[in-house]
Amino acid sequence: MRTVCLRCRRPQTVCYCADLVPIPTRTRVVILQHPRERKVAIGTARMAHLALANSELLEGVDFSGHARLEALAAEPGTMVLYPGEGAQDIAAMKAHPPRTVIVVDGTWPQARKIIRTNPLLERLPRLAFTPQQPSNYRIRREPALHCVSTVEAVVELLGQLEGQRERLQPMLTAFSRMVDTQLQAERERTAPPRRRLKRPAVRPPPLPAALARLPGSLVCFYAEANAHQNGVGLPPELVHLVALRPFSGERLELVLRPRKPLWESTPFHIEVPREALEAGLEVADGLSRWRAFLRPGDVLCTWGVFPQQLLEAEGEALEGVLDVRLAAAQWLKRRPGAVETAAELLGCPGGHAPIGQGRAGRRLAALSEVVKRLSAESHQLLTRAA
After folding, report:
1. Is residue 199 part of a domain?
2. How many CA atoms lie within 13 A of 354 on its CB side?
3. What sign for the dihedral angle of Cα 153, 159, 162, 164?
4. Quick one: average pLDDT of 209-232?
5. Is there a contact between 242 and 361 (Cβ–Cβ < 8 Å)?
6. Tens digits of per-residue pLDDT, 222-260?
């Protein structure tokens, strides 16, 4: 078994840590790495992170409710390095450079998915650049001449924003050594080429029958939290709850007064004014209204487990909750991302009005459309099988 370096996670024989001494920068670089890229031995996101003292590396696709990323997005001077319409050229930003730049690491399809899955990234201003030279990423095929690796993109970004590009040369040295080592290993390889075995297709299970058989009992709900920054030691607490019966239109909205100190960024992230939160209901009164809204035999539907966890943390026992995100993934045969994205993928009618205030009202409206669409599809499946 090969010995692996715990810092760069490469085999000791090809470890590049000796080339990397953390470089201080004015610009904070936050790298969002697609989970599949973490498993790629020749990826460069970790290399860039280890080379920069003022950097962070976050892994994932759907960062909904991610306190750290939401806090960064709320700070003035945060931008996303991603080309496209409206993106500003780095060269024009030298006079007023961003404080934080979010860099998405992955293939172009993976990067697009991360951007589209996270509305907060789509709302941020964008940066773009034209590389001064072609990529040296000779062990991976880039889709176009202007495409570069993550570490090369970061060097280009900081070199143009902060100048003194020679400071960043150790990053490119480590990158070139990794590429050269990989190419040399391929030339010396005597074993037959590896072949990836195709896995047999797995037929997804049918949609939950409750979506078709009990439409009048379906209750969609979404919840928001007063979530403190990691390390503070305070668990998130329920402060906003919205619910809807999608087939009758009955709705409920509860704004609950925080029991713990209100985190400064909470009103911004959940899009509910501080004054409304501080004037909210006592939690006991709010939960009493929630119970009165429910009926025997109701099937609760939510997106992910976080809303359910918030209610259960307040002592509400919830049984048989239907995670619509899993049902959507089964139907779409892919990860659906945020609920708004899933509504688009399922072809739900757009422009639906928010059901309640803030982010919760907007997401509950999308969840309702997803539930109605999946209910119709489930009904057709049951009809065909009868």
Report:
1. no
2. 12
3. positive
4. 83
5. yes
6. 999 998 766 567 889 999 999 999 999 999 999 999 999
Quick one: pLDDT band at residue 102, thresholds 50, 70, 90?
Answer: very high
Residue 229 belongs to domain spanning: 210-385
* Structural contact between residues 255 and 239, judged by C-beta atoms closer than 8 angstroms: yes
User: Which of the 8 DSSP states describes residue 301?
Assistant: E
**CATH number (domain holding residue 264):** 3.30.420.10
Contact indicator for 61, 114 with CB cutoff of 8 Å: yes
Give the gyration radius of the chain's Cα atoms. 24
Residues 173 and 231 in one domain: no
Pair (144, 272) in one structural domain: no
Evaluate if residue 18 carries a pLDDT over 90: no
**pLDDT for the residue numbered 224:** 95
Tell me the CA distances in angstroms from 296 to 174, 223, 291, 372, one per residue in order.
63, 21, 10, 21
Q: At what angle do helices 358-385 and 324-332 cross, to 10 degrees?
A: 50
Q: Which amino acid is at 74?
A: A
DSSP-assigned letters across all residues of 202-259: -PPPPPPTHHHH-GGGEEEEEEEEE-PPTTS----EEEEEEEE-TTT--EEEEEB--S
Q: What integer pLDDT is reported at residue 282 of this predicted model?
A: 96
Quick one: pLDDT band at residue 366, thresholds 50, 70, 90? very high
Residue 304 lies in a domain: yes
pTM of the model: 0.50
Asked if residue 202 has pLDDT above 80, the reply is no
Q: Read off φ and ψ for residue 154, nearest 5 degrees.
A: -65, -40
**What secondary structure does DSSP assign to 56-112, as a single string?**
EEEE-S--TT-HHHHHHHHSTTEEEE--STTPEEGGGGSSS--SEEEEEES-HHHHH
Q: Which residues contact 183 (CB under 8 A, 6 or more apart)?
A: 138, 139
Tell which phi-psi region holds residue 150, choosing left (phi > 0), alpha (psi between -120 and 50) or beta. alpha
Together in a domain, 21 and 142: yes
Q: How many domains does the chain have?
A: 2
